[in-house]
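Q: Class I SAM-dependent methyltransferase, please. Structure only.
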Amino acid sequence: MDLNLLNSEIQEFIKKNIGASISKLALQKNPFPKVEWISILNQIEAKTKSKEKLPTWFSTKNIIYSAKISIEQTSSEKTALYKSTIVSGASLIDLTGGFGVDDYYFSKKIKAVAHCEINPDLSNLVKHNFEQLDAKNITCYSGDSLATLTSLNKKWDWIYIDPSRRNDAKGKVFMLKDCLPNVPENIDFYFKNSDSILIKTAPLLDITAGLLELKNVTNIHIIALENEVKELLWELHQEYEGPITIKTVNIVKNKTETFEFELNEESELPHFSLPQKYLYEPNSAIMKSGGFDEVSTFFTINKLHKFSHLYTSEGLIAFPGRIFEIVNAIPYNKTEMKIHLEDKQANITTRNFPDKAESIRKKWKIKDGGNLYCFFTTDENNQKIVLICSKIK
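A: Structure for Class I SAM-dependent methyltransferase:
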C-alpha cells in the first residue's frame, strides 16, 4: 500500500479521470514521478468500477483501492446489506476478508467483527479503509485464517466464508472442495468455533451438488441484482436436521422481490392451461432455485408446460418477475409467422423451444428491440406456439 497515493494532487487527478480510457492514459507521461504510473492508473480504474457497485467507498475521502480484480470479485454494497440481515449476535469472524465490503455491513449488526486476509498488503489496505469509513469495531488479521481462528481460541456467534475457486480447478465441475479454503474438509473445525456458518458461493455452484458437500443447511439464499444472480448464501446451524428453505431475492432499483419455499417438500401438483390473458416469467433468482411447481401453486397461476417455466392467468397478479399481456397466441408455422412477425421488430425469448432466438430472428428477418415481446415456447399439448405480448412490468 503506497500512502503517497493520498497526495491531494494525485487524489484530485484520480477524481478528474473517473471513467477515462485507461489505455489512453497509459500512453501519457506520469505527472507524479514519485508514484508508479501503473498504481495511479489502477486507482482510477478501480474507483471507476466502484462508482455504482460501492458508492460508500467511492464517495469517502482517502480510500485506497486494491487491484481491479478484487473490486470485480467483491460483493456489491446492495448484496452485502442483504447479508447483514441474516446475522446477529456479538461476534463474527470473516475467514476470507478480501476488500472488506461484507464486513463493513456486518459491523453495523455485530458488535465485534474480525477480518482475516492472507495477503498482508490487502489486509493493511483494508484496515486503512475501515479507518476512513469510521468502522471502529472491525479488527484486521493478516495471515492464514485457520491459524488465526485457532490462535484466537474463542467461540464466535458467526463464521463467514467466501471461498475462492483454485486456479487448477478451471474447467472442472464447480465443487466446494475445489475452493480455498476447502469448506467441506474443515467444516467440523469451523463448527467447533461457531454454531452458525454463512458461506457465499458463486451462482455457478449447483444447489444439489452443494448440498452433497455440506451439512446442517437451514437456508439457501439466492441473491440476484437487477435480475442477474450474483451469489448463493448457504446458512448452516450446528446439529440442524430439519427442512431446507430456499429463499430467492431479486434486488431491483425501487424494490426487492422475494419468494421462498421448502426444498423437497411435497407440494400440490401445478395446474396447466393454454395461454390466458397474462403471461409471467420468473426472475433469475427463482429460475436458479428450480422451484417451478411451487411458483404455480403459491401464486395460483397455471403453467404452460412442465418444462416451459412460463405461467399464465386470466386475472392480473403481483409477481416476482416480468409480466406481460398476451396480445396474440399463434401456432408456430410458416403461414402465421409470415402474417404476424416476418420483417417486424420484436424482443425474442425462447423457453422449451427447439430453436434459439438468434436463428429465429435470422430465419424470419425479425429486428431486435421495440415494444413487442415474443415468447417462442411449447404449450400443454406439446404444440410449438408463439406468444405475442406487450410488457406490463
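A: Brief note, in case it's useful. The mean pLDDT is 94.
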